Amino acid sequence: MSELVIPSFCDFLLTPEQLAWIQASHPARKGTLPAPPSFRSAMDALVRRYQREEQQAGVYSFAELAGNRGWVASQMNALEVPTAKILKDDFSLQHLRDVLQGVDACVIKPKEAHSSRGVLSLKRVDEITFECLQLRCRLRLVDILERLYQEMREHQFPNHWQLEELLLPPSGLLRPVDDFKFYAFRGRVGLILQVARQPEGQYYRWYDRDWHPVETGKYADAIDPALLPPRDPEALLYVAERVSAALPTPFCRVDLYEARQGPVLGELTPVPGTYHAFGEQADLYLGAMFELDNAAADK
After folding, report:
1. 242: burial class by Cβ within 10 Å (0-12, 13-18, 19+)?
2. Which among 19, 104, 213, 281 is least surrounded, fewest beta carbons within 10 Å?
3. Alpha-carbon distances, residue 142 vs 14, 64, 86, 155, 156 (angstroms)
4. What pTM does this model have?
């Protein structure tokens, strides 16, 4: 019996009958409509599972493991997938000047925050001045501190920070690398989100597994069709699916950078922010992938 292969999102939109089984009803549901697959519902169940596991003595949920840099580093070392190097770990902003001593280039980011809040990519100009790649301007140390304190107050994350190595794009331009976030299910990618950080804010572009641009209903107001796709899309896809296949979870978003040295893992994201914000077709499609890959794991 041949294995059921899920089409790309673009193919699904063109010929939804390829996934006709998702509309299947049953006599036991007489008088009511069947509930179709849903990424929102599947993620809700997965989050409950993580929360339940975290209350059990001696049990570590995948969400906890993914937040443990030591565990992630060991998994990526085994797969020979490079990760962004940590230059300084877990310091408060009061010590930023001391922490930056001897560091010519870095990314400063909060340890417990989401998205790009509190993230600055810096290249040193002199003792107290840095070029900020996101804002494309120079900032003095006092300006950096003022900005980070404001972000911390507005978004209410703890005063725990880290410095990572500054990755640069293959073009060699002095700008932040784009993020490519792969929604992956046991070794199979469903959707890819490109994130570009520019002075006026973040811009996005969605792709299916074959790198065809698609609309998902998420970030609709900040989609930029002019964003250039990666130089080596197949290399990024290969790494994302290889990492996903090795993880002990039915779903994880694998966040990669396309850097000068090739694909570099940014982080593993077990629970993406606002996963409920997908449009109906994308939610249905990702929900179907959740069901298929859970079924494959049960065999």
Report:
1. middle
2. 104
3. 54, 35, 23, 20, 21
4. 0.90
Q: What pLDDT, on the 0 to 100 scale, is given for residue 5?
A: 76
Sequence-distant (6+) residues with CB within 8 A of 7 are 15, 18, 19
The answer to whether 54 touches 61, Cβ cutoff 8 Å, is yes
Residue type, 297: A
**What's the gap between Cα 95 and its chain centre?**
29
Q: Report residue 201 as tokens.
A: 């804010």
The answer to whether the CB of 231 falls within 8 A of the CB of 258 is: yes
Q: Residues 266, 268, 273, 274: what is their CA dihedral angle, to the nearest 10 degrees?
A: 120
Q: What is the dihedral of CA 115, 134, 143, 159, to 10 degrees?
A: 20
Yes or no: say if 179 and 195 are a contact pair by the CB < 8 Å rule: yes
Residue 11: which H helix or E strand, with range?
helix 9-14
Return the amino acid letter for 170: P
Q: How far apart are CA 272 and CA 287, in angstroms?
A: 14
pLDDT in tens, 159-175: 999 999 999 998 877 88
Indicate the SS3 state at residue 172.
coil
CB–CB of 61/53 below 8 Å? yes
